[in-house]
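Researcher: Let's run the pair from yesterday's discussion. Sequence first, then tokens, for each.
Model: Starting with the first of the pair.
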Amino acid sequence: MKSFFYKHLPANLTTILIVSSLFLLLLSCNKKPFFEETRTFKDQNWNYDQRIVVFEKFIEKSETPYEVYVDLDLEKDLDVDEFPLTLSIYSEQGEESHKQIVFFFPVMSDNGVAAPNGPKILTKLVYSEKYFNNSGNYTFKILRKYSKYDLYGIKSLKLRIEPKKVTK
């Protein structure tokens, strides 16, 4: 019995190695974001009274870097040249960070031509490497900094947090 085991040891190790590699590959291909939440606006109107959109998430302490995105789902281009937003992140420990992003209009395609004025989703990378060093509840606030008027044409606003894709 002992000699049978030792004879087949290389084949057993190879099988274990292949199965383990496939398992790790499947885990790393998971495209699901760490956090994703959408706020939909009634009648495609982000009104001034609700200019701050708040998201909350309990996050475990991690040494993994994350990418933080804001997606703006539009029914049509906004009638502005630029649309600034500020993303503020607050932790239970009193840490806070603030970053401003700007969406420009009209939206230009890669070849420098204005994209058609119609439904589209615009994405901005806010943090390319954000660390959550403490466990606890985090509050994410997105403040629209444009005018005191309602903004028509915005269907929804999405906050996405994804593990940073590490390339070697």
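Model: Moving on to the second of the pair.
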Amino acid sequence: RPSGEKGRSAGSSSCQQRIWELEEVMEEYLKRCRINLSDKSRLIQDSFRLENQFSLLLTQLKACLLGGDCDSRSLRHWACGAAFHTQMLAHLSRLEEKAEPFSARAALDQYKQDLKQIIPAYRNYRSNTVVVVKCRGVLLANLDPCREVPEDGTMTGLTVMDRETGKSVSIPLSTMEADIRRRCNDSDHNALNLDLITSDQYAQAYLDHLFSSKGPLAELENYFTQIDERLGMQRYDKQSKSKNAIREMTEQRGEVHLSDMVEGNTEQQKIGAKEIGEWTTEHTDGAASLKLSIVETQPEESLSQAD
């Protein structure tokens, strides 16, 4: 199994084990759905069994996150697993011909509450991985590795380093000043000495942005909101579906569409048999939209906001 990108923390062995097990149950669930498309009773039995396993694993992974192993990779796996579990429950609701996916909504509400508990643990973890160094003379990114970092002289910028990813981003002083001029009037800008702001304060400013309403953590919360909205559009009309509804909903243009049973009939939501593997990879690898790394969050847009 992949151990993650180089330089990225994989969390404790217990946390990693939960992630591997989630991936295995997810893969098995998708396989059983494809195998039993023509046997509704068997499909419901398998779905119940695997949904229970998946739910327990998510609870165990949450415990790992709250216990101090809340790195970015593990958080993404938990978030994507929570979304996948919600879809499993919605799938079951449609198989059972229920009018609305009440169990899926209840699970999603619980995951929203869980996320509120997890975010402080993630911030505590990230506070120990982000380091800001003031650059003097030249930016660290342009320094000869054999040379010592200057401790005296005029500040020329910042270098933000992320111990989790092993990456760094350099921000020239001119970029910071230009951003301040854009936000403040000239008199305020002239009175501000950016060198008086400590490295810890710059690091705190980066974390404040990361966890603000405009940062990537807000995108993660919005990820759950979008799922909630999709669930709100799901309805099942028994009178409009025949006894062969499962196959009618899943066979179109010679392809089998699993998510028609999960999310309705909109083209955007259809996942063909050929795409199931890709969909699984997207969810287990952390969904590219959940941006939590230092490079993806563009600290040059946030560090100059320090007050």
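Researcher: Give me one sentence on the second I can quote.
Model: The chain has two domains: 13-127+213-284, 130-200+296-305.
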